[in-house]
From TrEMBL:
Primary location: membrane
Family per record: Belongs to the SecG family.
Residues spanning the membrane: 6-24, 58-76
Subcellular location: Cell membrane
UniProt keyword Hydrolase present: no
Annotated spans, Disordered: 87-114
Swiss-Prot/TrEMBL keywords: Cell membrane, Membrane, Protein transport, Translocation, Transmembrane, Transmembrane helix, Transport
Protein name listed in UniProt: Protein-export membrane protein SecG
The species this protein was found in: Winogradskyella alexanderae
PANTHER family reported for this sequence: PROTEIN-EXPORT MEMBRANE PROTEIN SECG (PTHR34182)
Name of one Pfam family that matches: SecG
Gene: secG
Membrane topology: Multi-pass membrane protein
The protein's role, per its UniProt record: Involved in protein export. Participates in an early event of protein translocation.
């Protein structure tokens, strides 16, 4: 497996986790933290300040996603790219017909289509 493939798999995993963490949060301050007692100082089952954890994990996953995308860009093989003939300045264009010629057998009328 190439390094790019490994980065691609990691990007998909981090993106999925980021979606899950964002969906768990409630934009009005409730969410997962309100279901464990509602108060910031209450503790139920060892969970305290769940909202802070979700906020920090969102920022961490977003930063990790950006870093992985930039790192994957460095690992792309430049030798495997297909070269474009449109960018090739030495291409012979003498075989192409001129743009303003009318094919034989076709006549044009003086009327222009509207």
């Amino acid at each position: 497996m190439s390094a790019f493939t490994i980065f691609l798999v990691l990007i998909v995993i981090v993106a999925f986790l980021l979606v899950v963490v964002i969906m768990v949060q409630n934009p009005k301050g409730g969410g997962l933290s309100s279901s464990f007692g509602g108060g910031g100082t209450q503790q139920l089952g060892g969970v305290k300040k769940t909202g802070d954890f979700l906020d920090k994990s969102t920022w961490f996953l977003a930063t990790a996603l950006i870093v992985l995308i930039l790192a994957s860009n460095l690992t792309i093989d430049s030798g495997s790219s297909v070269e474009s003939k449109a960018l090739d300045a030495t291409e012979d264009t003498s075989t192409l017909p001129p743009l303003n010629t009318i094919p034989a057998g076709e006549e044009t009328s003086g009327d222009t289509p509207e």
